[in-house]
Amino acid sequence: MKEKDAPASLYKNEQAKQRAHESYDRAMKLWDTDYGEDWVGTAYGLTHIVTAGPPDAKPLFLMPGLFADATMWYANAGALADEYRVYAVDLPVFGGKSVPGETSIGNIQDYAGWFSELAEHYSIETTALAGLSYGSWLSLALARELPEHIAAVIMLDPSETFTKMRAAMAWKGFRYFVFFPNRQKHRAFFNWMGGGFSDPAADIWLEHMLDVIECGRVGMMDVPQHRVYRREELKMVTMPVLILAGGKPIIYRSPEKLKKAASYALPHAEIEIIPDTGHSVNVEQPHAVNKRILGFLKENYH
Fold it and tell me: What is the pLDDT of residues 153-212, one digit of tens each?
C-alpha cells in the first residue's frame, strides 16, 4: 500500500464499521481475563490495543493474523496475562478498531517505525513478541529491524517466512476471495485452514472475522506482504525464538519440511509441531500452546 492509498477508514462506511465493532465486542466476551483498551496515537493513525495482566510485569506484544485482531487471543490471554503485561494489537492496516492516519504502512520499515512509537508510548525498552500466521512473520520481521528492542520471538504456524506455502493456498485464495466471493465461501476457506476444527467459542470468533472481511475496505493484497527470508538475512536475529506449527498438512504440504527450513534459517530456534492441529494452533490446542509459550518465556525472557 503506497502512502497515497491510505484509507480514511478500514471499513466501507460507518454502518459497516459499526457492524464489525459490534461483533468485535461479542468476541471480546470470550476473553477469560480482565482487560483494558487503549488508543495510541502514531504517525500512522490511532492504534487500538487491548491490555491485560499486571502493569509492572514484563511486556508481551501479540500480533494477529491477516484480517484478525486482538479478539483472536481469547484462548490465550488469561494464561499469558497471569505472568506478563499483555498488549494485544489491532494492526492499523486491516480489521479491528484501529483508525488509519494520513500515512499508511507500506513496508516493514513503516511497521518498525509504528511499533517503535507504541513501545515509546508505554516506555518499553525491550519486549517479547508473539504472533500467528501473518502476525508470526511480522514478529520476526520486527526482530530483524529492531533486534536491540526484541528480547524473544514466538511464532505460531508462520505463513511464508521460511518456505513457500503450498499451491493450494493460492488456488483456494483465488477461488474463495476473488472469483465471486461471498460469506459462505470465506467460511469454507477458514474451515479448511482450521482442518475442520470448530467449537462454540471459535464459531463466535469466526463470525467476527467474516464481518471484518465483508465490511472492510482493505484487501489481502493491500497490506505489506510477507516473504521467505534467506538464512543470511536473519543473522541479526540472535534472540531466543520459539516456533510452533500445526501438524496437519494445510498451509504446508509437509509440516516437517517447514520445520527443516526453519531450522536451517534459524539454527538456534526451538521448533515443535503440534500434532492433529490446523493453522489456528492457539485456539485448537490452547492448553498445550500456552504451556509451551510460558515455559519458553520463563527460560529465555528475563
Answer: 999 999 889 998 887 776 777 677 767 788 888 898 888 888 889 999 999 999 999 999
If one counts every other C-beta atom within 10 angstroms of the C-beta of residue 277, the result is: 25
Kind of pairing, strands 45-52 and 36-42? antiparallel
pTM (predicted TM-score):
0.94
Q: Residue 55's closest CA among 88, 85, 82? A: 85
List CB contacts of 225: < 8 A, sequence separation 6 or more: none
Residue 144's closest CA among 241, 52, 27, 56?
241
Q: What is the mean pLDDT of residues 103-119?
A: 95
Mean pLDDT of 37-66: 97
3-class SS of residue 256: helix
* Domain chopping of the chain, boundaries: 3-300
C-alpha distance from residue 63 to each of 23, 135, 166, 256 (Å): 19, 5, 23, 25
As a CATH number, domain 3-300 is 3.40.50.1820
**Rounded CA separation 72/63 (Å):** 10
Strand 241-246 to 270-274 pairing: parallel
| Reported confidence tier of residue 2, pLDDT bands at 50, 70, 90 | very low
Q: What is the CA radius of gyration of the chain?
A: 18
